[in-house]
Amino acid sequence: MRPLVSSLLTIAGLAGCAGAIAAGPQCTAQSAATLTPVIELYTSEGCSSCPPADRWVSSLKASAASGQAVVQAFHVGYWDYIGWVDRFASPAYTARQRQIASWNHQSGIYTPQLVRNGQDWRDYSHALASGEPARARIAVQRSAEDAFEAQVTPADGVGAWAAYWTVTEHGHNSKVKAGENAGEFLQHDFVVRQYVAAGEYHGPSKLTLRAIAGQAGHPRQVNLVVFDPKSGKPLQALSVGC
Q1: So what's the architecture of 28-240 in CATH?
Q2: What pLDDT was estimated at residue 41?
């Protein structure tokens, strides 16, 4: 889609990795000893090159449910001027994409962009490969209907760390009536519906989130990503499906 869009690479089989996720009656989860890959897709309903990437993200539902990845689809609005306004987009998501570009020393942003563990990533077939040790431990629990708490313990040697929460939802769709995807019926999973920067910390800390209410027919995931504020590289990430 115009000069800003990368070509979606051929999608091959996915490599698994160790992770941890739980959504039992108490809705609690603890992170694994290895780093859970953080997958971010920057996409737009106004981008004609984005639907294949959206479909690829949807194919990760089983992997994410088993703790092999934390997956987030950030919709951006800078293609809205073409004629179709993406209702899932937020300026905050574009700002995050620009921050990632800065960390990666990129001159611009584009869609669809796959970001893996804070880095611009073109190899879709190996996006889930991992095995490196985590540099933080996370324990998340739901404390009330839409309230969540997390205890974060950084590894020895970690100085300052930062974090953000997202709430993602499955099962959204749009009948696009204008722009480059006019006439298309687009289906979306892992749609970021809430993004909350949680600040910067030193040492073990407790974080809280008041999540947006869940919607019937749109399964919700609450995600916490702990990262190095200098590079954007995740130290660990965790999801709960409730």
Answers
A1: Sandwich (2.60)
A2: 98
